[in-house]
Amino acid sequence: MPTLGVNIDHVATIRQARQTVEPDPVAAAVLAELGGADGITVHLREDRRHIQDRDVRVLRQTVRTHLNLEMAATEEMVNIALEIQPDYVTLVPERREEVTTEGGLNIVGQQSWLTEVVQTLEAAKIPVSLFIDADSAQIEASATVGATFIELHTGRYAEATTEAVQAEELALLDQGCQQARALGLRVNAGHGLTYWNTYPVACLAGMEELNIGHTIISRAVLVGLERAVRDMKGVIWGRHGAIESQG
Question: Which domains does the chain have, with CATH numbers?
Fold first, then answer.
């Protein structure tokens, strides 16, 4: 079964709402790891709406599992990654007006620039993951630019309003995962996954890591972060009963 990367951006969102010092995402990362997180994910956005530069630097020094830095493919962010040396980088699309990432990165449309970015980071021994839709052309282009991983965007699966549509989207994720593996890419997934829809994605053959944030932080408000992370680990491993009994 895949490992769990816990995205702690929304801890910083609460802090930035009041421009204060709490809650501290660094402390959240410690609690997430105590709860069984296999990795910590943060998105350093260009507008710094939640995670700040200092957070990433301190997390690099304190995270004991692995640190996944999500970022736009810009010169500024590449330089920050080269300085901080996260365990791996996930390149994501970014628009300032969006509430959260709305879709996958267009690798086909910017293949030359992304090849340069990937080569720069990989040369510094920072593996690169590309956050993309489960689209055959985008997967093939991801292999062409030299990425180590892709992260399949699970938003359409998570937002499906009927079981039939959800099954169709899950099948597309499965096909994308198998195509990527055949091309030598390693596969992660994330976006919109919850305690109620994660398990089928976790069961996809070859899936290595699920990056999940909002649903875990939401549950943590009520039950605490360590327990919220443990609960999600249970979901990934098919232990649904504990979640259902807790409400």
Answer: 3-240 (3.20.20.70)
The label of the residue with tokens 């990795």 reads 39
Show pLDDT as tens, one digit a residue, over the chain (247 residues): 999 999 999 999 999 999 999 999 999 999 999 999 999 999 999 999 999 999 999 999 999 999 999 999 999 999 999 999 999 999 999 865 554 556 799 999 999 999 999 999 999 999 999 999 999 999 999 999 999 999 999 999 999 999 999 999 999 999 999 999 999 999 999 999 999 999 999 999 999 999 999 999 999 999 999 999 999 999 999 986 545 544 4
Residue 153 annotated as binding site = no
pTM over the 0.85 mark: yes
Cβ atoms of 151 and 131 within 8 Å: the answer is yes
Catalytic residue list contains 70: yes
Q: Which of 70, 94, 151, 169 is catalytic?
A: 70
Q: Are 214 and 176 in contact (CB under 8 A)?
A: no
- Which of 33, 43, 94, 151 is flagged as catalytic? 43
Contact 130, 147 (CB under 8 A): yes
Active site residue 191: yes
